[in-house]
């Protein structure tokens, strides 16, 4: 804890993370690159286990980036208590702060949908598991809002079970006050709800994630990119604000249960946040579909 506190003078260190010496990790390959971090596949030499390590590009952390990274680690630490949220194995402190998590053999749901025609029964099981993971996050006290739920941020283990990941945009919410200073500005535009475009200072709330889940269901049903033909983000904003949504003509009607799930999808992306269900409602409905 002292080592952590030295590393994060601007935040209150109140959690116990296992600290993993970086030299016990054997670097293997780069899995992905992001704004201020990249994800690397590595092997833990003592545990003989493959891990994924989220590392910062720069050694010197800005105050706000420090907070983002540290609070991501705290949320992942909680994730260990849900089957459907990625867990934290530990953190590295040197040479850079890094987050170590289990390696997910089947990569992201976005990658899977791109490469494989996933069976419908498996799609519904995944959708159900996502709603269970999101229920877990929204039921934490303080509540955790993901604010960047999309197929890319859903990881799949060796048996294609779901782990929600990437809490880089996520927020803690205490009553009506959102705790971290970061606004949802970095959230993915295709998955952000209309009320967010209308008021950029709007405190994120759970209905933000439910809207994103609607778009994610569309991604799972169509295997396409939402607004794939829009030329720029300003047009997407305008379209979503005026009530347009991803293309319904790409939703097939033949396969079993697509009609039921696409009705749920449409309530999730309702214009009025109050008309959107909770993740508990979604989980209950998807459980019925999954068990049919
Ligand atoms: O689709 P992907 O292969 O799965 O590309 C992205 C990339 O890193 C950027 O996020 C992959 N990734 C992230 N975390 C993990 C993890 N724990 N296990 C395996 N792959 C991961 C993700």
TrEMBL record:
Annotated ATP binding sites: 54
TM region positions: none
Domain Protein kinase intervals: 25-288
Superkingdom as given in the UniProt entry: Eukaryota
Protein name per Swiss-Prot or TrEMBL: Leucine-rich repeat protein SHOC-2
Residues of the full protein shown: 577 to 868 of 892
